[in-house]
Amino acid sequence: MDIRNFCIIAHIDHGKSTLADRMIELTETLQKREMKAQLLDTMDLERERGITIKLQPVRMKYKGTQFNLIDTPGHTDFRYEVSRSLAACEGAVLLVDASQGIQAQTLAVLYMAMEHDLTIIPVLNKIDLPAADPERVSEEVIKLLGCAKEDILLISAKDGRGVGEVLDAVHDRIPGPKLGHESDVARALIFDAVMDPYRGTVAYVRMMDGSIKKGQKIHLLGTKMEFEANDVGHFAPTYVSEPSLNVGEIGYIVTGGKDVTHVRTGDTVASAIPAEPLPGYKEVQPMVFAGLYPSEADGHPTLRDALEKLSLNDAALSMEPERNAALGNGFRCGFLGLLHMDIIQERLEREYDCDLIITAPSVRYEVKLQSKQPAEIVRASLLKTDEPDTAVISNPADFPDPTYIADIREPWVKLEIVCRKEDVGPSMQLVTDRRGVYQSLEYLDADRALLHFEVPLQGIVLDFFDKLKSTTAGYASMSYEPIGYRSGDLVKLQILLLGEPSDSLSTIVHRSEAHAVGGIVCKKLKEVIPKAQYQIPIQAAIGAKVVARETLSAFRKDVTAGLYGGDITRKQKQLKKQKKGKKRLKQMGKVTLTQEAFLSVLKRD
User: Fold this and answer.
1) Domain covering 408-487: architecture
2) Any idea which architecture 3-173 has in CATH?
3) How does pLDDT run across 393-441, given as a tens digit for each residue?
4) DSSP string of 281-305, one letter each residue
5) Nearest to 103 by CA among 464, 444, 439, 453
């Protein structure tokens, strides 16, 4: 059987899912009446937001050839989905919007495809738009890929123009799959997995060697589990059962596994053991961390179960149990970015009916300790195995006393911004305000520039993208990738209420930003903490040094309201008595941070 495995890669909104729709139509994989816009975006969230979140495979037949297509997301937060798709393919269709040209994410996914040694087919989409400029964009693509002008295909995925030529190019230019070893042992790579409520765990696989039949015993080499292949088949794009999956094909295997930890993305399925495991995927490193808590304490088991099921389908999600003084028991979760975090939150609320509270996002820091016995200073589970005197901390509450810290390292990223010529200055200013370091500038054409920076992840993780869009009138696009940890003058900013530190409100900031951040948090707290019968000082401090302060004035009870007439000393006596009482109350008083107050400070707007 002649087989072609390929995926469509592009920047956000350049038309990947629409091109996939036209291919499904042209190959008559589905009837016209079964078609709908963005057919492969099956999640409600994807259809509402108009973005692809999950990779989606589909098999098509065209001119006697089997085409296995994987539609991929475009947003940088889902780049792990793209890298997994690339590992299951031999080629990629690089889609570029003929009106917008090359954007930051176009470069990011292209470099990823080149790392996997894939054959690239450049395609310009949206040539039917009045603003389309195929000549200019073709020059950009030629400069980027070094290809000939005739290699670039011009299409309109919206009205189907040129889609047949793309399928012909896939057949002619992309090589068929290598047919693996001449051996009886079948091996397949799991590139995704889902938990089906009726059938158990379903693994999405790319067959590398041999074939796996329905009802056959299968072994998962990574988790050392053994299952029976209850069903095997391909995607059209729904599950279509088949007697077997053969070498080079992309399909699914229903394992029937009930435990989500048994079937892992990147694992190898083999028909017999011993077998050589396939090279899996680089373990994904979460970039942003936040606490997820149920709004009611009895929702904790439901949240844990939901997170475990989601982590099977989303290998970039990490989780570990955590306790917070204000919010109770929850989980510290790792995400690839804020959009990823937002999507996980919505999926938990919609698909698993969880009522959630999310704390402020932070990043992961490496803290080098001075002590001989670091396990006494931080939890042993936070220590790195290869560096026993270094702890990896994402929750500011876990930070040790500064006297035990030799050095703090924070994650840095390589940031690429594509913007108009007139936006270069404002973009550079925005990045340098976030402690970014300018690297280089190159022009893609006369009007558009590509800027390279190195910047601390903490600086771009919260509202940087929104600020960039508003600064550049919506024209700029960005992409980033981690480049490791670097030492910085980082401090733990503690919030003191009545002189007592509130761990749940502490944050890690650069010393130069401590005063500004402390001032903002103190002002917010002053608005949300209910007044008591005594003054409440709200302070932001680094160690013993207070960097910002607000004072919540006392709630004044009118103790002289019932005194009519008589000597003034009667009133003074009552006021003196009240003053003493307030002093006594302040000594024994405590500020209880309510859940609402906590959220108004920490929850994202």
Assistant:
1) 2-Layer Sandwich (3.30)
2) 3-Layer(aba) Sandwich (3.40)
3) 888 878 888 888 888 899 999 998 888 888 899 999 999 988 899 999 9
4) -PPP---EEEEEEESSGGGHHHHHH
5) 444
